[in-house]
Amino acid sequence: MPFDHATALPAACYTSTEFFAAEMVAIHRRNWFFVGLASELASPGAYRAIETVGGPVILLRDNDGGLRAFANCCRHRGSILLEGSGRIRSIACPYHAWTYRLDGALIAAPDMERTPDFDLTEHGLARVRLETWQDLVFLNFDEAAPRQDAHHLADHLRPGGYRHKGRDEARMHDIKFPICEREELERIRRLKAEVGGKLAAWPQHFQCAL
């Protein structure tokens, strides 16, 4: 199908609560999504707290120089652990002072020594899948999803389309994507079936170029 024949989504896609719920489950929480630049977290302890389709997440650089992502909630009472961005040596919950290393391991849980069979090693932060391509950082909440490099991002970027720049210079229109791949269209057609066919006529193709 030629690109200039692509059509927009039907209006119901933007207002249907059923479609939104199914879309979150079937697409957004099963696919890789961009969250920032690895160079923004350059040194050990650097972190940034972000909001995502799967809930609040902490991006950080651990003491070994690796990038990590964790659910931004304490394993005790679910309190938000960090806000904004900065540098830290450990992660301490502001509620009951449960404390975690930068690798997510729980190292202190005040008063929990009185709880029978409580094991610190079983209550580390919930990990979120993270992968990088060039300087770009991606997350995925689906443990069964294929690796990010399997998407062959380089094959989808037009020659000269992506140029690494500073954050202030970066513009999304520098990255050009072709029409969605066939398997993505099939995924969305299945999504239509999941919401019971309540939407208007479904387009054959839709535009993904920015």
CATH superfamily of the largest domain: Rieske [2Fe-2S] iron-sulphur domain
Rough shape?
A: globular
Q: Report the top-level CATH class of the largest domain.
A: Mainly Beta
Number of helices: 3
Question: How widely separated are the two ends?
Answer: 18 Å
Strand order of the largest sheet: 4-3-2-5
Return the CATH topology of the largest domain. Answer: Rieske Iron-sulfur Protein
Beta-sheet strand percentage? 15-25%
Helix/strand order: HEEEEEEEEEEHH
What is the architecture of the largest domain at the second tier of CATH?
3-layer Sandwich
The total tally of domains equals: 2
Evaluate the radius of gyration: 21 Å
Largest sheet: 4 strands, antiparallel
Report mean pLDDT, rounded to a whole number.
80
User: Which parts are unreliable, with pLDDT below 50 for 5 consecutive residues or more?
Assistant: 161-180, 198-210
Number of beta strands: 10
Structural class: alpha+beta
How is this structure best described in words?
The protein has 210 residues and is α+β, with helices and mostly antiparallel strands. The chain contains three helices and ten strands. It folds into two domains: 1-29 and 149-210, no CATH class; 32-141, Rieske [2Fe-2S] iron-sulphur domain (Rieske Iron-sulfur Protein). Helix content is 14%, strand content 21%. A hairpin with a 5-residue loop joins strand 3 (55-61) and strand 4. The longest helix has 13 residues, at 182-194. The chain starts with 16 loop residues before the first helix and ends in a 16-residue tail after the last helix.
